[in-house]
Amino acid sequence: xxxxxxxxxxxxxxxxxxxxxxxxxxxxxxxxxxxxxxxxxxxxxxxxxxxxxxxxxxxxxxxxxxxxxxxxxxxxxxxxxxxxxxxxxxxxxxxxxxxxxxxxxxxxxxxxxxxxxxxxxxxxxxxxxxxxxxxxxxxxxxxxxxxxxxxxxxxxxxxxxxxxxxxxxxxxxxxxxxxxxxxxxxxxxxxxxxxxxxxxxxxxxxxxxxxxxxxxxxxxxxxxxxxxxxxxxxxxxxxxxxxxxxxxxxxxxxxxxxxxxxxxxxxxxxxxxxxxxxxxxxxxxxxxxxxxxxxxxxxxxxxxxxxxxxxxxxxxxxxxxxxxxxxxxxxxxxxxxxxxxxxxxxxxxxxxxxxxxxxxxxxxxxxxxxxxxxxxxxxxxxxxxxxxxxxxxxxxxxxxxxxxxxxxx
Length: 409
Ligand code: ATP
Ligand code: MG
Prior knowledge:
Blueprint: E1 5-9, H1 20-34, E2 42-46, E3 49-53, H2 59-66, E4 74-81, H3 85-97, E5 105-112, H4 121-135, E6 140-141, E7 148-154, E8 159-162, E9 166-167, E10 179-183, H5 189-199, E11 203-210, H6 217-234, E12 238-244, H7 246-253, H8 261-279, E13 285-286, H9 299-306, E14 313-314, H10 322-332, H11 335-338, H12 345-348, H13 360-374, H14 376-385, E15 388-392
Parallel strand pairs: 5-6, 5-7, 10-11, 10-13, 11-12, 13-14
Antiparallel strand pairs: 1-3, 1-4, 2-3, 4-8, 4-9, 7-8, 12-15
Helix pairs in contact: 3-4, 5-6, 5-10, 7-8, 7-14, 8-9, 8-14
Bound molecules: adenosine-5'-triphosphate (ATP) and magnesium ion.
């Protein structure tokens, strides 16, 4: 193709006022990092826009990556020429002729940002349109619903001609809004929640609770797979904390409060995660909860569970329908992994009728009893100490354990 640049546009960024410079810098760093295999690329920043100069690199391969980079609202491959009528006309025609399928209708939408250019936007629509029409016999103008809208953006430094506008994920560049811990189960929801949190500019560390030997190696591999997928989207290695939860769970089960087991487990998870957050300088906890989905996700349950931590609980899916979440999971490439049928630590202990309306005072009383009789707090500390940490990247076929090699299997 004839494109020589990609225009990168950012949405949320535009609103950041004073922080704008910092965000733009991070955006550029992200592009450079994610596209480092394409050695010939260069970058330029002009009037609040970013341009990738292709210098002969393959546009399609680059677009495939650019479309997933957080902070980008849309991007367009463009032909750039001197801001001069004949050059613009020639480029517009060449672009129309290079299209894989010759369109039947088109229109030109010119925009003169550089006011010293001698023709107005309206004039340019005609001047460029007429030139193209003269050369392409079968083509007609349709201003209402054209097959191709040929855009001509006239700036002082260059004129940009393009017709394609591709959507990026939007949001903020990765890591520009601080760090949070992601509670990552092997299910459908939490990976989607993780992606949404990262899109908002959050750096994440994932935390997974397992009940080895009650849960299998397969279950662990599944979570690793999901974490790797998330690290593809962030373009950065993702830390995965694997917390041994068996002791805590069996102790909670000894409370004899069957309907409250899930409530107690979730509160214990939050307490452990809060400690991990402090050690790792994170300031929030992201979960995949969605209102009303299961007993532990009624509003009353969320209230009682949430009081176990003072950290902000971020729940990107809270108001979404299951089908919407599934669609997202499919789009992100996590769905197929998420539905693999391996036991989760919580399903093992799932009571027959979990409480949908736990009572905070009573829950606290049960925990007080467990602390006194069974050293619950100490067990939580112990779980933190025994936590295994993996550093995952999308490329790594076999991630290496960074602590406690054989503790698991
Ligand atoms: P998911 O599809 O993410 O598993 P879910 O709809 O199955 O969610 P629950 O199993 O009730 O709902 O879990 C609610 C949230 O609690 C999850 O989205 C996740 O953030 C967290 N969570 C549940 N189990 C675990 C686990 N074993 N390790 C880490 N986090 C967990
Ligand atoms: Mg689950």
